[in-house]
Design a protein that fits this description.
- The protein has about 425 residues and is an alpha/beta fold.
- The chain folds into 2 domains: about 5-20 and about 235-430, UDP-n-acetylglucosamine1-carboxyvinyl-transferase, Chain; about 20-230, Enolpyruvate transferase domain (UDP-n-acetylglucosamine1-carboxyvinyl-transferase, Chain).
- Helix content is about 30%, strand content about 30%.
- The chain contains 14 helices and 24 strands.
- Bound molecules: shikimate-3-phosphate.
- Shikimate-3-phosphate (S3P) binds near residues 23 and 171.
- Shikimate-3-phosphate binds near residues 23, 170, 171, 174 and 339.
Length: about 425
């Protein structure tokens, strides 16, 4: 099993242009495929997860130009009814976004498709998506009442429903918004706690019948989506490892350029600032997605609390925030984050186990954790638990360890950030 060693202690110094945003890259491919005509995107994230979406669309007859190693992708969309029955199973690897968003699109197709994934994806709950899609009229089969992949979906004849997005999941919301494009009557989603809104922005830009009024999203049957050309912003969830690492380590100074600053994704900046971090950012482009620059200078931080309403704005950044909390002064409490237990791995458990192994004080709670900050951590052996964000978070911990951190099972990093190790080495300066 591949492993990586990070030799601490040290600090981060320099400039990072993070790789393209994963959530937006998936959506760019999906909207490109359903539009009529040529869509062209720059700074596409060529990671394993996004390539799974790309491969599934090709298997449904979509013409996609993308050369290996390139960040440019051109899609010849054949319109909202242009997908063809795949001749093979659609394998979606580790990617929850691929399987859940595709389920929404496939619910509107008149052919049958089988969606499968790796052991982690096959153990993640899908009823959150398949239940409402079945209510809309799709037929979906799979283990435990269509809760687990492999899933067989046959769509067609959908009708709109009204849905309360209680989990505040952007994947669930997006699947239903896609299905709503095919449904008779409005599909209405209530979202009391906002989650990332990339799908909504794409719907607006593509000219779909979509509106947002307060916390209520409505989409209606749309026969035509407009293609478009845009540059995908850098992924703040990937930059987060360097933002958090720099913020918590005195002596660090890092500038992050061309990074997405969509307010539904910047919760990490709010929380780090509350912990006393020296962070400035400014937006240089507003539409279709806010983008800009972040400047971070390291210092000793203090503990904080994170509650339910803030969780969707930083859900993917919680593992690295657990590292920051372990090194901050005082106590930190994370609650309302039970969703972390059904990510690529149970991230409350994976992070608590790893952090404890290197000397942190972490108590697992059913929906979060209680962390008492310690001055510094020791080196040691840790595990990725086949989860990219757990692995990268543990690399960040090495900035403030006495000794090296070994991380087992680092191949998973390629699902979201293939260049992580090289970017880490460029910014890392030993003490
Ligand atoms: C994502 C939504 C989030 C996030 C995931 C990507 C998306 O998942 O954790 O990494 O692209 O919509 P949930 O919708 O399950 O919270």
């Amino acid at each position: 099993m591949p492993q990586l060693t990070f030799d601490g202690p040290g600090y981060f110094s320099g400039t990072l242009v993070p790789p393209g945003d994963k959530s937006i890259s998936h959506r760019a491919l999906l909207f490109g495929a359903l539009s009529e005509g040529s869509s062209c995107y720059e700074n596409f994230l060529e990671s394993e997860d996004c390539l799974c979406t790309l491969d599934a669309l090709r298997a449904m007859g979509v013409s996609i130009e993308h050369a290996a190693g390139s960040r440019k992708v051109r899609i010849e969309g054949d319109g909202i009814h242009g997908l063809k029955a795949p001749a093979r199973e659609l394998y979606l690897g580790n990617s929850g976004t691929s399987i859940r968003l595709l389920l929404g699109i496939l619910a509107g197709q008149r052919f049958e498709a089988v969606l499968s994934g790796d052991p982690s994806l096959s153990s993640r709950p899908m009823r959150r998506v398949t239940d409402p899609l079945k209510k809309m009229g799709a037929r979906i089969e799979g283990k435990d009442n269509a809760n687990f992949a492999p899933l067989t979906v046959r769509g067609g004849e959908l009708r709109g429903i009204e849905f309360d997005n209680k989990l505040s999941s952007a994947q669930v919301k997006s699947a239903l918004l896609f299905a709503g494009l095919y449904a008779e009557g409005p599909t209405i989603i209530h979202e009391r706690v906002p989650s990332r809104d990339h799908t909504e922005r794409f719907l607006g830009a593509a000219g779909a019948f979509f509106k947002k009024e307060g916390t209520c999203l409505t989409v209606e049957k749309s026969d035509r989506l407009r293609p478009f050309q845009t540059k995908i912003p850098g992924d703040i969830s990937s930059a987060a490892f360097f933002i958090a690492g720099a913020a918590m380590t005195p002596g660090s100074e890092v500038i992050i350029r061309d990074v997405g600053l969509n307010p539904t994704r910047t919760g990490i900046l709010t929380v780090l600032s509350r912990m006393g971090a020296d962070i400035e950012f400014h937006v240089t482009q507003e539409v279709p997605e806010p983008l800009g620059e972040i400047h971070i200078r390291g210092k000793q931080l203090r503990g904080t609390g994170i509650e339910h309403a803030e969780i969707p704005l930083l859900i993917d950044e919680l593992p690295v925030l657990m590292v920051v909390m372990s090194l901050a002064d005082g106590e930190s409490l994370v609650s309302g984050a039970a969703e972390l237990r059904v990510k690529e791995t149970d991230r409350i458990r994976s992070m608590a186990q790893n952090l404890k192994a290197i000397g942190a004080s972490v108590k697992e709670l059913s929906d979060g954790c209680l962390i008492k900050g310690v001055g510094c951590l020791r080196g040691g052996k840790t595990e990725s638990f086949a989860d990219h964000r757990t692995a990268m978070s543990m690399a960040v911990a090495s900035l403030r360890t006495k000794g090296s951190i070994l991380i087992n099972g680092t191949e998973c990093i390629a699902t979201s950030y293939p260049g992580f190790e090289s970017d880490f080495k460029t910014l890392f300066k030993p003490l």
